[in-house]
């Protein structure tokens, strides 16, 4: 295993946050690489502390996905799901741009396969939790 990555799917209403890092090549979910001796949750909170000057998380992040990736190099990727408040202030030294998007439009932002899989799972979870209107019988 050459590295561990912790990413976050921030959920606000039915949208999620994606970021563009300075000098980056693509949009991504917030988070980053773990340091030596850090677990996935520790790495996530450290990375988020570096990437945002103000961020209010509701509750404890839960693991949405965890898998081993062997594309290019071997690494463990953990993607957490959490609700956040309306106040999310990116640190401009770490994040060049941030956007709230509908996960259905994620394909337009060229996220990684792992990030797209996490957003697909989020869509499935949201679809299951929606209340369906009652059927009216004549």
What does this protein look like?
This protein has one domain: Nucleoside Triphosphate Pyrophosphohydrolase (Alpha-Beta Complex). The protein has 138 residues and is of the alpha+beta class. Strand 1 (4-12) and strand 2 form a beta hairpin. The chain has helices spanning 40-51, 113-129, and strands at 4-12, 15-20, 31-33, 52-69, 75-90, 97-101. It is 21% helix and 41% strand.
Characteristics of this structure?
138 residues, alpha+beta, Nucleoside Triphosphate Pyrophosphohydrolase, 2 helices, globular
Explain the layout of strands and helices.
Elements: E1 4-12, E2 15-20, E3 31-33, H1 40-51, E4 52-69, E5 75-90, E6 97-101, H2 113-129
Parallel strand pairs: 1-5
Antiparallel strand pairs: 1-2, 1-3, 2-6, 4-5
Low-confidence stretches: 129-138
Tell me the number of helical segments per DSSP (H or I, 4 or more residues long).
2
How do the SSEs run, as a string of H and E? Answer: EEEHEEEH
Number of strands: 6
The CATH topology is what?
A: Nucleoside Triphosphate Pyrophosphohydrolase
Indicate how many domains the architecture comprises: 1
Distance between the termini: 61 Å
Helix content: 10-25%
Query: What value does the average pLDDT take?
Result: 84
Name of the top-level CATH class? Alpha Beta
Strand content: 35-45%
- Structural Rg: 16 Å
Largest sheet: 6 strands, mixed
* CATH superfamily caption: Nucleoside Triphosphate Pyrophosphohydrolase
Oligomer, anyone?
single chain
Question: What structural class should be given to the helix and strand makeup?
Answer: alpha+beta
Q: What is the annotated CATH architecture?
A: Alpha-Beta Complex
Globally, the shape reads: globular
């Amino acid at each position: 295993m050459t590295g561990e990555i912790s990413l976050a799917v921030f959920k606000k209403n039915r949208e999620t946050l994606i970021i563009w890092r300075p000098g980056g090549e693509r949009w991504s979910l917030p988070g980053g690489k773990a340091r030596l001796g850090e677990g996935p949750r520790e790495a996530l909170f450290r990375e988020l502390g570096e990437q945002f000057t103000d961020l209010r998380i509701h509750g404890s992040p839960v693991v949405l996905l965890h898998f081993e990736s062997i594309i290019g190099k071997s690494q463990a990727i953990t993607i957490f799901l959490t609700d956040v408040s309306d106040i999310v202030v990116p640190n401009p030294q770490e994040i060049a741009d941030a956007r709230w998007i509908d996960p259905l439009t994620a394909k337009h932002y060229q996220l990684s396969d792992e990030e797209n899989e996490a957003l697909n799972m989020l869509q499935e979870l949201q679809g299951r939790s929606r209340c369906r209107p009652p059927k009216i019988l004549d």
